[in-house]
Amino acid sequence: GKPVCECNTCYAGPHCSVLLPGCIADADSGDPMFLEPFWLKHAASSTIMVPGWHRMNYEFNDGSLLSKQLESQIRTLHAVVGNAVTDGRYIVIGGGATQLLHAAVHSLSDANNRFSPARVVASTPYYPVYREQTEFFNSKDYKFEGDTSLYSNKSVSQGKFIELVTSPNNPDGKLKKAVLQGPSVKTIHDLAYYWPHYTPVPTPADEDLMIFTLSKLTGHGGSRFGWTIVKDEAVYQRILTYMSLITYGVPRETQLRVLKLLKVAIEEQGKEMFNFGEPTPAFAWLKCEREEDKDCNAVLHSMNITGRHGSLFGAESRYVRLSLVKSEDDFDWLLKRMKMLVSQEN
Ligand code: PMP
């Protein structure tokens, strides 16, 4: 039978239909729970069983850390969706895009660079982890240097750059292209949201290094699974070395589960999961225009709406990111709260 779900925090009663009046609309987290109904519907076909004796070895029979079936399933997925070129490209899997982002920055920086560390840059507003991660690891090989707009193409000819490009962008949903160009610029394309449920997908992406994640594709953030598609063999080898020294691969249980989830996701060419024709950005990027509303998050907070502060994304405090990917109840409650806010302002 269907599992019994707990009521969302803003609802009560036997059918979870009673709205709790003072409840906070929490639009902070980017957990894509909007996909839960899809997985409830496909509960039987997406279930895996792992007996105690199964898949105990460190490695697969060929000595690799990546299941051959899973690798080919990932290639099939991109071919079906048409969002990335994988022919002749290498694939490395990791513990979510989070781990792969750092693996990529590490692998594109030059450990033998005698001069200066590579400058890691992104265009404002950018996903905060880029800065947080680079600063946290505090490497001598690379350093976070902020917004791409600080560097004219002239300065790009001096020193090495690693540009992080997020398309569609988190937080503002824009389709982005690399800003910096030149022989000393390497790019990392974070394509976490380049799927038909978030954006139109006009052409398959064909970049040097692309990162995708299961969390935004199927909603399984907690499985901690992502993959990188790389053109250059030397970069691929560096990422493999990184992965093998940091964790020695992704759990084989996870790989088994992901294989199953991807099979179900692309049934009928993914029509049901992607709900074709209705791409909606994962986030709303809101600006408070009124002169006195300098801290937009505080304005929302006074109306019981929790968003994520614009300053975290390198932007002004007049901006707030609101998550639209949580459950339908969360979304409805956010809309109600926003309507109350607008009617009060008027
Ligand atoms: N990149 C972007 C742009 C994201 O929004 C997120 C998740 N919020 C990640 C990477 C991290 O994804 P994962 O859950 O796979 O670590």
UniProtKB/TrEMBL annotation:
Origin: domain of life: Eukaryota
Gene Ontology terms describing biological process: amino acid metabolic process
GO molecular function: carbon-sulfur lyase activity; transaminase activity
Keyword Signal belongs to the record: yes
Cofactor: pyridoxal 5'-phosphate
SUPFAM superfamilies cross-referenced by the UniProt entry: PLP-dependent transferases
Residues annotated as transmembrane: none
Alphabetical list of Gene3D superfamilies matching this protein: Aspartate Aminotransferase, domain 1 (3.90.1150.10), EGF-like, alliinase (2.10.25.30), Type I PLP-dependent aspartate aminotransferase-like (Major domain) (3.40.640.10)
Chain segments annotated as coiled-coil in the UniProt record: none
Domain Alliinase C-terminal stretches: 25-272, 278-341
Record's keyword terms, sorted: Aminotransferase, Pyridoxal phosphate, Signal, Transferase
Entry keyword annotation includes Metal-binding: no
Family per record: Belongs to the alliinase family.
Name of the featured protein: Tryptophan aminotransferase-related protein 4
UniProt source species: Hibiscus syriacus
